[in-house]
Amino acid sequence: MDFLRKLISIMLIMCFVFLLCACEGSGDARIYFSVENMPETLDPQVASSDSELLICRNIYEGLFRKKGKDEIIPAAVEDYDYSGLVYTFKLRDNLKWADGQPLTADDFVFGIKRALLPETRAPFARLLYAIAGAAELNSGASVVTPATSSSLGISAPDDKTIIITLSYDDKNFLNVLSMPIAMPCREDFFADSTGKYGLEKDCVLSCGSYYLARWNKENAGIRLYKNDDYTGQFRPKNGGVFISCDKEKTVSEKLLSEESDIALISSVYLPEISDKENIKTVSVQNICWVLSLGGDFNENIRRALCGCISRDSYGKILPLGFSAANSIFPECLGDINAFYDLNYDPDGARAIIAEEISGFKNKKFPQTTLIFTECEMLRPVITEIVGDWQKNLSTFINIKPTDKPLESELKEHTMPLALFPVKADSTVDEYLYKFGDSYFNGYRLVPIAYENTTVAYLGNLSGVNMNATGGYIDFSGIIKN
């Protein structure tokens, strides 16, 4: 009987241990991640696409790191001080690159200096402009050489100390230091890459939670394994991340067939997964579709067109993942009180148009085409807006999709009517820089709709968090059961 009791006790303990392990998931589990487009570079200073920023965030360790949605916490930094526009950062002990070599303050200084060199063409270099001398260097007005490098406000007096002097107070600066643009770069490795840095597997040197183990460009596959030389607090709770881009299947199809565990999902695929019990989603509102009114339209005509745009009307037909916009600032940029009141007033708009047309030579509204960034999901909304103009103002406006970039319309307004997405991929200041002074000119830019970026994942994953900028997902905290 005693033997039987002991046997039952042992079996119960084993069952408890098994269940505990099952709840915590396997530390060696592989996370299968699908993307719509593979990265062209894994150079953190040059990365710009969603997949590039996401991978760089996971294979490099910055001075700071984003935890969860909004929190910025020290990463490579052990302690820091800020006084009189001067930051002093002390690095943690035993920082290493994936090849076992020490990660030093000089590597962070070189990475930031390189990001600001004009020839690097870093797309997010402006985020570093708070650093004294940064704007001048990036614009080509000054050159960093061994003799003049002190003109840029960043230095490393020893291997564990970084001093950064700002030219103005930037409340968002620590957030910037968590982004790929501010990741370290080892000068000798960069030089040995002879122009291929970040462009192929052997020219990528990791220092974050994961290292780049494979990059197969022909078969569109990337493998990240947990970095055993990583000594920080973000040790992966999984064995690695296998990233793929399937030309035969969409990201939603791969999720539905459980060939992938997690994916970045564009809004077009949301209807396919929205009602599936085994698929969860987390989203961030970080895109604003903006209508540009330009060309030869004067302010009165622009005001009349705005007076016949009804958010209540087109808002009812917006597809999943979209919502009517009352500000150019999507939710990810915070609670910014800058609402745009369209003041739907078709009667007033008709009176304005009638007066303006009376001065035209042929007494007619000019034949016009609305150009929009190709998005079939928004075509019904565009048709609704154009139909409202025709019904109330007797305007005949064609619509035409385009796959050409329309970013210049934010500042130049060369087209009479254009609708296109503007992505908030960094800070408020950087987002507004895309607009120039256009937003403050009368009725030139009208926010129409917000669009979400969504991460979808299978129910056997936990610890999936998302932030709006700098790479969306930190894979290190994800557990696969």
Helix/strand layout:
Layout: H1 2-24, E1 30-34, H2 50-59, E2 64-67, E3 71-74, E4 77-83, E5 86-91, H3 105-116, H4 134-139, E6 154-158, E7 161-165, H5 173-176, H6 187-192, E8 210-216, E9 221-226, E10 240-244, H7 251-256, E11 262-265, H8 270-273, E12 279-293, H9 299-306, H10 311-315, E13 322-324, H11 346-357, E14 368-373, H12 379-393, E15 397-402, H13 409-412, E16 417-423, H14 428-433, E17 445-458, E18 461-462, E19 479-480
Parallel strand pairs: 1-10, 1-11, 14-15, 14-16
Antiparallel strand pairs: 2-3, 4-5, 5-7, 6-7, 8-9, 9-10, 11-17, 12-16, 12-17, 13-17, 18-19
Characteristic key phrases:
11-stranded mixed beta sheet; 2 domains; 25% helix; Dipeptide-binding Protein, domain 3; 481 residues; 4-stranded antiparallel beta sheet; D-Maltodextrin-Binding Protein, domain 2; single chain; alpha+beta
Find the CATH superfamily of the largest domain.
Periplasmic binding protein-like II
Number of structural units classed as domains: 2
How many helices does DSSP assign?
A: 14
Would you tell me which CATH topology of the largest domain applies? Answer: D-Maltodextrin-Binding Protein, domain 2
Mean pLDDT: 90
CA radius of gyration:
26 Å
**Low-confidence runs:** 7-24
Gross morphology is globular
CATH architecture of the largest domain: 3-Layer(aba) Sandwich
Helicity, in percent?
Answer: 25-40%
Instruction: State the name of the first-level CATH class of the largest domain.
Output: Alpha Beta
Beta content: 15-25%
The total strand number stands at: 19
Largest sheet: 11 strands, mixed
